[in-house]
Model the fold of this input.
Amino acid sequence: MSEELVLKNLKDMDTGELTSLCSSLRGEILSATKSNGGHLSSNLGIVETTVALHKVFSFPEDKIIFDVGHQCYAHKILSGRGDFSAIRTMGGMSGFPDPDESEYDAFGTGHAGTSIAAALGLCAARDKRGEDFAVIAVVGDGAFSNGLNLEALTVSEKKPKNLIVILNDNGMSISKNKNGLYRSLSKSTIKEGYVKSKKAIKRIFGNSFITKFFKGIRNFFRRIINKDDFFYGFGFKYVGVVDGNDLTKLLPILERVKTFAKDKAVLLHVSTVKGKGMTDAENRADEFHGVGKEYKVKTGGFACAVGETLVDIIGKDDKVVAITAGMKDGTGLKKVEESFPNNFYDVGIAEEYAVTFAAGLSKGGLKPVVAIYSTFMQRAYDELIHDVCMQNLPVVFCLDRAGFVGEDGKTHQGLFDLSFSLSIPNLTVLAPNGKKELKDALFLALSLSSPVLIRYPKDCGEECCDSISEKPFAVVKDVDDYDTTLIAVGPRMKKIALSVAEKDGKIRVVSARRLKPVDSGFISSLKPGTTVITLEENAVIGGFGAYLSGFLRDKKIKLFSFGAKDGFVPHGTVKEQIESSGITAENIEKTVNSAR
Amino acid sequence: MSEELVLKNLKDMDTGELTSLCSSLRGEILSATKSNGGHLSSNLGIVETTVALHKVFSFPEDKIIFDVGHQCYAHKILSGRGDFSAIRTMGGMSGFPDPDESEYDAFGTGHAGTSIAAALGLCAARDKRGEDFAVIAVVGDGAFSNGLNLEALTVSEKKPKNLIVILNDNGMSISKNKNGLYRSLSKSTIKEGYVKSKKAIKRIFGNSFITKFFKGIRNFFRRIINKDDFFYGFGFKYVGVVDGNDLTKLLPILERVKTFAKDKAVLLHVSTVKGKGMTDAENRADEFHGVGKEYKVKTGGFACAVGETLVDIIGKDDKVVAITAGMKDGTGLKKVEESFPNNFYDVGIAEEYAVTFAAGLSKGGLKPVVAIYSTFMQRAYDELIHDVCMQNLPVVFCLDRAGFVGEDGKTHQGLFDLSFSLSIPNLTVLAPNGKKELKDALFLALSLSSPVLIRYPKDCGEECCDSISEKPFAVVKDVDDYDTTLIAVGPRMKKIALSVAEKDGKIRVVSARRLKPVDSGFISSLKPGTTVITLEENAVIGGFGAYLSGFLRDKKIKLFSFGAKDGFVPHGTVKEQIESSGITAENIEKTVNSAR
Done:
């Protein structure tokens, strides 16, 4: 679709033409996602709303922020910025909003909960500078109960004008009637009162004109006292619920919202169907949330192992409980929910809460296992330190997607968890290579009476034979007279290390499965004058290599570290990301030789 | 007060005796705080409520969690655990709840927002294990709008039985009518609707019996539709507002709450006077919030400098704005509020929001300076990475209380900010020694077009003459033929380094004012074969020394690092904490000599 054609014409299109445009957009989204993978269902669901926003508002002068960001595909196509079919490939468009890519992306997003806070910041700057444009935050119902969005709602009852929050309700959280916000959103919270008084009045007055009179009053009040009141208290005019997939309904309402917003911040509640336009995605929206090429959905090898192992463990120990922050599929905890629903907690997109809640569970005598992706665990850094580790509580953390994550790119990389965890006292840090080691790690973790963090990428690799307790640093390729030891963290690094070592008779390879505490026996056995090279899928700064250096200070060991460099790693394949970080056999060999 | 006497008798005391007990408690609190410093006003305000809780409930079987924790003094005295007069001194009682100290402290707290999440965890464990006790969370109004507490409220509308949340409203946040939560809490949110309809009815019906009839209906609805509805939606029965300083009112209500709670979670809203019982503290509650010995309140030297410098800068550049997360006094931003209220934002206890809001302000063209204590900045770690640094936004962070913090102890130490910040790409990290350097750092930071983090302890120290840009690493004691370089981060470390160097003609001392990017010119000038010793008030793991080691790998430099060891540092004086961390002249000299 040519950029000029879209931008020039969209404003002039009538509803019929816009509906055709939506079909075209769906076609492009389906095509690109089939080829490159991506977030399918949410993007399909938000097409009409995105088109309507582009029709009614004027981007980039008006600003739009997509909370969590992955539902931006239609927006990216409409705002024309190059070849959409290359989305999520190295050098191509990012799968998330990125101001570096286009001024149509007002704010970079990827983690949930940031849009309203960022929108309030943009509004405050706009108003202080005397500028005039609309600021729109599109937030899914799941992200609405995230602490950062809640803080943004709560911080002040005075909301700026020309702020529109679009609550995109695709029923994935709210309709499941899970949380307190829902009660306030979709039921009249005073319904009980109404019902009681209605019955009382009928009982007293029967069907007389007085009853009819009361009904009139009730309807009068109802117009005033509906879900309006919840958001009213937070400074918004509430409009909704509108069918967000029906342009004939949505467009006129959006025009009125645009006008209302000039006087008061507006919360527009739209209802959309996740996966709209593709039957499979509509029926199995969760499965089609994040897909690979050919729409394939493959649960990570480690996630499978976590689910299976926990089911096995819980079957023998009812005190073990599993917690996810809205990611039961990706983390593998769905199996626990199915087998042991009373040992399973899904707290929604609330990582901080997940961790402190787990601390409370642990203090109360249960054995919590919290599964959160490495990148999202960043949200709970303080809770990890202050609520878990400071009290030395035996909580186990399973950090999936640790390391390079591929096509989701910079907002999702798991390249900081070693940098943030290794400095936390009382915390044991483990890095298994495959399913068996993951099980070993879980059993070990649950046997300790202190906190443990286990980190691993999505896919499993080859494993070592020895148990982690026996051999925290396991020698996986030994040589009699080594001059170099490659210490690898995780399966991908181990594979690279072995490829280097197989061509060199003086290099041995070690897999570090327990990173903290270090394997002090192994450290003291290191031959002085030799070289140690660490390989990790983590920032070099503050990572495992940096941590290890503290134990080698007086050992006449030459230490070199490979890992992510000091920069945010953009989207591409994992292989491309590892290479562009310089973690290549060639570079490692060069380092080996320069040290000799 | 003898423990046995209190515990045995409190349950038997009548209201008069309990009132006398409150006076005694106040006496002990005033006395210990005068001697050791501490959190005075909040503790004075919560005495009656604490006594009432101990009277009505049975600790430690029932569990109590104090959000933010510092208002636990009366509880500690009543639960008898040693010499209260030694509170906040090394080896003495902590100024915060600590399960290691006593089973009466159900959960360790210090940072705001954790109590409801932890309480829900305790309840879930209790219910799963078939146990039976009450769980009480005492939350101040300020902490109520923290994202973690909000997540805890929102995560599920089903709250456990036997959970009581006490909202301690001392008017310090809510009465200032600052946030959306207040509207819902203390006004009927449909008041506007009522007022309009009331006027309409009067206009139509005058003063006839029909108007009176409507008034009756109104009163009927009012009883049903009050603030009850807000918390009802979150699964609580709401009871309040009760005078939390009046035992005659509080005790009977608390008894009823205890009974209600057996069927449904209860939110009890109490109103207390901060500083109650000491006129000065009542009238100037903010000032007497955290006091030093003799109740002295001294604004930190760096905080003063931050306030003065920002006022100066904003006077010339209206785009500069200052943000605090509920700590305008401690951070020095109060001066900005007084001089430039339109350039000042206090977001309440919401650090995550503060940072993402600042990112929005920056994206909108303003120049935000965010002042948050080092320990509380841990809460906004992900927002720092994801919302600020990933978009390379020029936001300046001023982290006060970086380093050892003294008597507030382990929950407040600022010993991780270098470990978490040095690995973040795009972030410049500065560590000034005194007022002049702080100003220099602020001017430098605001001149850059990328994010900057400035960290410093409470009190200023001696400064260097050169600007930070010219000499990121400034040599403060030079020798011609050095064999050792002590690189100190911050004024206290510099002082220790100088005391070591003055007795040794081959040691030079460097003050590192810019930690990242390193001073590469200085690094390349280091003489091979010499020793570098880093001194920092931060964890050694992942700290500045570890960061520096990455630049010294091929330089034949012997590197040693002094800093906080791998453990949480308990309360005491700063001097005691520095010594117990081994950062002593004696140890440094030993290291120097062993390297020679």
